[in-house]
Amino acid sequence: MSIMGTRVVRTEDPVFLSRGATYTDDLTDERLTGALHLTLVRSPLAHGRITGIDVEAARAAPGVVAVFTGADLDIDPALLFPAANRAMVRPFLATDRVRFVGEPVAAVLTEDPYQGQDAADLVEVDYDPLPAVIDMKDALAGETVLFEEAGTNLALAFDDQEFDDHLFDDCEVVVTREIVNQRLAAAPLETRAAAAAWGDDGRVTLFASSQNAQAARDEVAGWLGLDPANVHVILPDVGGGFGAKIGADPVFALVAWLAKRVGRPVRWTETRSENMTGMLQGRGQVQTITIGGRRAGTVLAYRLDVLADAGAYPALGAFLPFFTRQMAPGVYDIPKVESRARVVVTTTTSTGAYRGAGRPEATAAIERAMDLFAAEIGMDPAEVRKRNVVAPDKFPFTTKGGGGGAVYDTGEYAKAIDRVLEAAGYADLRAEQAARRERGDTVQLGIGVSSYVEITGGGAFAEDAAVEVHADGTVTVLTGTSPHGQGHATAWAMLASEHLGIPIEKITVKHGDTDLVPRGAGTMGSRSLQTGGVAVYQAAGQLVELAKQRAADLLEASVEDLEVAEGRVTVKGTGSGVDLAELAAKEQLRADTTFDSGAPTFPFGAHVAVVEVDVESGKAVVDRIITVDDAGPVLNPLLAEGQRHGGIAQGISQALLEEVVFDADGNPLTATFADYGFPSAAELPSFTLVDMETPTPLNPIGAKGIGEAGTIGATPAVQSAVVDAVSHLGVRHIDMPATPLRVWEAIQAAGGTND
Questions:
Q1: What is the pLDDT of residue 500?
Q2: pTM for this prediction
């Protein structure tokens, strides 16, 4: 019986629930004996010139071993994203100018961590304040330029040309609106952390909280001017990433440099406020959407104009509008689509990937556009969607509108919409809504529908894996993916067990060590199963073939007559055989492989959100959310459901709660969890998960990514539901997050009443 598709309980949980995880800050590795502790002196200004730094008082403080400023460093500033404007580099410690609140200005090393902040407070930095640039439109206008040598605040542009004036000529109805996809904090429960120690061999060992060890190694090596072979990266347990921990943080390189300079190991763990002001943040787009079509419900043209916020120094976030443009039309077969994106720097925290990374922004835009179009023509929003989705017989389907188009592998979009509507009892919900409106209830019902497609594994199609059977019958799996909550230890053991027939309890999965696994692309973009998992599956299959070849001589049988089951190679139809462990005892029994799909996959789905809104207070509460999230055949329903739950929760949270806010001077107003809307289970309903599986032909198990799907579908569904609840009062749009104040203000602005 196959283990694939069964609900296998996570094998990693007993350790987490008993001993607990070992995060970077928990490490007791002997290489870190006598480590110093790094505290960063951070800028209190969003923008200003540094006119002087006095560190003498700090150097004399108790426990201080050394204090460094940017003038002491002999490493060049880092260009965090290679395609960005090359003048917009980030110094490891600011020297002449600061560009966001929290930018590191000096580094203090102390014997004990508690001594660090006291000493950091003694560092005197003189600033000449400069105007803050918070608004993206102001940044584009360029009245204040952050990088004088660049001469512009434009970090990157995608098809920055004039739009076609005739795009909507054939349309009977055209609707346009500017919408905001607000900035979010990744807020992992484990903040950024790193520790570095140099060996006598001239190599540095870097322990870090990251989503991919190999990329972190290469980035740190590049920043320090080292051969990557001289950088050994080890990832302990990682307490959440959500995209913000992809690769290396510049502070990782600083930690390594400091350890080399002082001749002692150095450790760094940031505080929660430092994390909320300094770690890469997500989203941050102003989108102008225009949609046109016929009154009968056919959409003929769509335009998406994106202005994106890179923050102070362009990082991965500067590239993500590429995906927003590439996925602009979503699930819809729209004849004419055009898009462009411009990315600007502002005096705020830099942006990077956040669960979905460019794709949720595209879905939020097109789904809002479809709702606005449906409202304008007076048609049910679910019906408008079904009329315009890509038909099943058109796959593979190449999209229009940007980035050269995306080639969707498979999809059953209308089927997904029908399934979720049926599971939600859509007709009954609309009847209940009509009754509440007729009665003039204070609490109105809103129903939001979204249909989405997303790209998974984009740009990282290949992954490495190795599977080895040992003489004691145990198995080691080496993988280039590294988990931070996804359940790889369980899933990869299942994939190996499927071929080998060895119980998963005897299979150990190892990852996150560049000496052990020198090649790998890590965990992001919902790529793990369809690349890393398939690589393990492929390696285990190759190991079976190797074992059969070696057993053939021992058993005096042809390879074709052999089979592997329950960890044993046997001659078909007989009891004659040899254990895999016996073969491993004679000679190493290992298979190394690289799997390359050559292209990404495109999971899809549909969500229905049911929201109650108190029209007197503006408070919105999600009563139900029903989802179809089709990622192909499911390896382990328990893990897949967990990924869906997490994604849906974060989607709801963006729609209703989360927003990073800066004041006009660039001061962050959401620097703690006391100020940043962050959900617990109490704020979320139970989720109704509807199953649907459409395999991809791009890998042998047919799997697509599932890690970000829930986020992409839930956000627009909940936003639409809130707007729908008060649409009879004249409200057409409410920007996220739909807080009580924002909903109440929309009702007042529309002049609506509930009488």
A1: 98
A2: 0.96
Helix/strand/coil (H/E/C) assignment for every residue in 93-123: CCCCEECCCCCEEEEEEECCCHHHHHHHCCC
Sign of CA dihedral 351, 353, 356, 358: positive
Kindly state the average pLDDT of the residues 279-293.
Answer: 98
CA 166 remoteness from chain centre: 37
Which pLDDT score is estimated for 401? Answer: 76
Instruction: Assign 577 a pLDDT band (cuts: 50, 70, 90).
Output: very high
| Residues 641 and 8: beta-carbon distance below 8 Å | no
**Whole-number Å distance between alpha carbons of 177 and 364:** 13
How many Cα atoms occupy the beta-carbon half-sphere of 631 within 13 Å?
Answer: 30
Are 47 and 129 in contact by the 8 Å Cβ rule? The answer is: yes
- Amino acid identity, position 99: R
Distance CA 484, CA 329 (A): 32
* Confidence bin at 648 (pLDDT 50/70/90): very high
Confidence label for 575 from pLDDT (cuts 50, 70 and 90): confident
Residues 6+ apart with CB under 8 A from 340: 157, 158, 159, 160, 161, 163, 304, 305, 306, 325, 402
Residue 16, token pair as written in the block: 């987490």
pLDDT of 588 over the 60 cut: yes
Bridge partners, 175 (sequence order): 291
Residue 390 burial class via C-beta count within 10 angstroms: exposed 0-12, middle 13-18, buried 19 and up? buried
What angle (nearest 5°) sits at the alpha carbon of residue 525, between those of residues 230 and 220? 20
What letter represents residue 295's amino acid? R
| Kind of pairing between the strands at 475-479 and 462-469 | antiparallel
**pLDDT score for 117:** 96
Return d(Cα 467, Cα 476) in angstroms, integer.
6
Residue owning tokens 């347990």: 237
Question: Do 625 and 607 meet the contact criterion of CB atoms below 8 Å apart?
Answer: yes
Q: Strand pairing of 336-345 and 397-398? A: unpaired
Locate tokens 């990744």: which residue? 186
Query: CA-CA distance, 80 to 317, in Å (whole number)?
Result: 10
Task: Give the contacts of 469 (CB within 8 A, at least 6 positions apart).
Answer: 475, 500, 502, 543, 547, 567, 580, 581, 583, 584, 589, 590
Query: Residue 86: pLDDT band by 50, 70, 90 thresholds?
Result: very high
- Residue 121 has φ and ψ, to the nearest 5°, of -65, -20
Q: How far apart are the first and last CA of the chain?
A: 63
CA atoms of 734 and 737, how far apart (whole Å): 8
8 Å CB contact between 300 and 292? yes
- Sign of the CA dihedral 717, 723, 728, 731? negative
pLDDT in tens, 457-491: 977 889 999 999 999 999 999 999 999 999 999 99
In three-state secondary structure terms, 210 is coil
Residue type, 277: T
- Identify the CA nearest to 204 among candidates 246, 259, 254: 259
Query: 114: exposed, middle or buried (C-beta count within 10 Å: 0-12, 13-18, 19+)?
Result: exposed
Mean pLDDT of the chain: 96
Q: What is the pLDDT of residues 592-619, one digit of tens each?
A: 999 999 999 999 999 999 999 999 999 9
Q: What is the C-alpha separation between 423 and 539, in angstroms, rounded?
A: 40
What pairs with residue 596 in β-bridges? 462
Residue 755 has pLDDT above 70, yes or no: no
> Tokens 């249909």 — which residue?
451
* pLDDT tens-digit series, residues 312-355: 999 999 999 999 999 999 999 999 999 999 999 999 999 999 99
- Burial of residue 201 (number of CB atoms within 10 Å: 0-12, 13-18, 19+): exposed
d(CA 375, CA 365): 15
